[in-house]
Design goal:
The chain is an alpha/beta fold and 192 residues long. The protein is built from five helices and seven strands. Bound molecules: guanosine-5'-diphosphate (GDP) and magnesium ion (MG).
Length: 192
Amino acid sequence: MKIRNARFYKSVSALDQLPEEPLSEIVFVGRSNVGKSTLLNSLTGRKGLAKTSSTPGKTQLINYFVINDNCFFVDLPGYGYARVDKGRRHEWGKLLGNYIRTGDRISLVILLIDSRHPGMESDHAMMEFLEYCARPYGIVLTKFDKLRQKEKAKVRLVMKACSFKSKFIVNYSAFSGQGKEELLEQLAKYTG
Ligand SMILES: Nc1nc2c(ncn2[C@@H]2O[C@H](COP(=O)(O)OP(=O)(O)O)[C@@H](O)[C@H]2O)c(=O)[nH]1
Ligand SMILES: [Mg+2]
């Protein structure tokens, strides 16, 4: 897809404030600091669209962006800031979990995973949760520019072995632009 325009729509902090516009949604989710805001800015080509920071944020907000006047990109709260232990692995914070479970306009979930840490427990729990909720999802491996050559091959193998239901895996670097066209091509299949 080609992103012709992107604008911030609104932030909500509860499920009863969701937008009424019946637009389909591509939802972005991942650990705090994984590079979600940076990815949104890079994909849309709008540097200041989503706020980025080097310290993990604690605000639990859902941010909506209108893309090409016909779909939403949805920025969900980051998880994994506090350790998720096995017994409570599906407790993402109410807002995040409930949103993914009940969002009936979600056409695709993009799960962002830091390419340097492909084995994180909380990310694997999220994949299980997405499969449990029957949400189609694709994986974006962020900060790919930080990997050495050897690590690049290895991370693909690790991900392929454990994410058999993901629709795609894209290596992404917001800094070099690697993966941008590939991801946009994938997203085109899920926008109206
Ligand atoms: N090297 C590199 N750093 C990145 C990339 N994407 C994000 N970062 C850095 O990771 C940190 C967290 O990014 P941010 O987008 O705020 O993460 P968020 O919490 O998931 O929204 C920032 O310091 C970014 O500059 C990338 O592709 N490459
Ligand atoms: Mg962010």
